[in-house]
Amino acid sequence: MTFERDEDASASVFDTRIELVSATNDSVELKVAGTPFTVAKGETERQEANLNITIKSITTHKVVLKVGDVSGV
Question: Which of 68, 29, 73 is nearest to 51 (CA)?
């Protein structure tokens, strides 16, 4: 999943809404199903709302996340 950093970015994955709140070079702040959620770069994965979320890359213009269902589907 790719978010543009310069606009209000959101998407639905596995029927769960994910919103990009902010990003630094080291972390990404999201709202996952309305719950504030922070993922640090280098973490293997973080879990929220039955989703595993990992940062793939953070650039000046984009944030790329890997999002998977906890059930492994």
Answer: 68
